[in-house]
Specification:
Elements (H helix, E strand, L loop, with lengths): L4 E9 L5 E8 L4 E7 H23 L12 E6 L6 E6 L5 E6 L1 H13 L4 H5 L15
Antiparallel strand pairs: 1-2, 2-3, 4-5, 5-6
């Protein structure tokens, strides 16, 4: 059965956390509720960003096109389960994703960021604030 969604109405999670629910209105105006077990919902979440990039490349005809989420805020925490860190990136509209970053990757990322040129506004400013580290919220 093929379902063509006309509108995503609501989403939810079962009380026990084992199922994710997506409520839709199909192209015929019929309410449809898609229930996905946790592992399938996880697979969909991991696949959608790549599919969005593929769709954007097809729409624009540009192989270099990428679907980009605009970063609004971020948080870094110590991981309880490893020697790495947890990096959470979030958009203004509430989308967020967390990555477990191994210690070796943290070191490489730190070196890369330390070598990156400062944003233009920071280089042109005489204000001492221009050299302060990034806060958890980007403007």
């Amino acid at each position: 059965m093929k379902i063509s969604s006309a509108e995503l109405t609501t989403c939810g999670v079962a009380e026990d956390g084992r199922t994710v629910r997506l409520d839709l209105i199909d192209a015929n105006g019929t309410a449809v509720s898609l229930h996905l077990p946790f592992t399938q919902a996880q697979a969909v979440a991991m696949t959608l960003p790549s599919l969005l990039t593929q769709a954007l490349r097809a729409l624009t005809g540009k192989p270099s096109s990428r679907y980009v989420f605009q970063l609004d805020n971020w948080a870094v925490e110590q991981s309880e389960n490893s020697d790495g860190l947890l990096l959470t990136l979030a958009t203004e509209d509430g989308f967020q994703v967390s990555f477990g970053v191994p210690a070796e990757a943290c070191e490489g990322l730190g070196r890369t960021l330390a070598c990156a040129p400062a944003p233009q506004a920071d280089r042109d400013s005489d204000d001492d604030e221009a050299s302060t580290p990034l806060s958890a919220r980007l403007n």
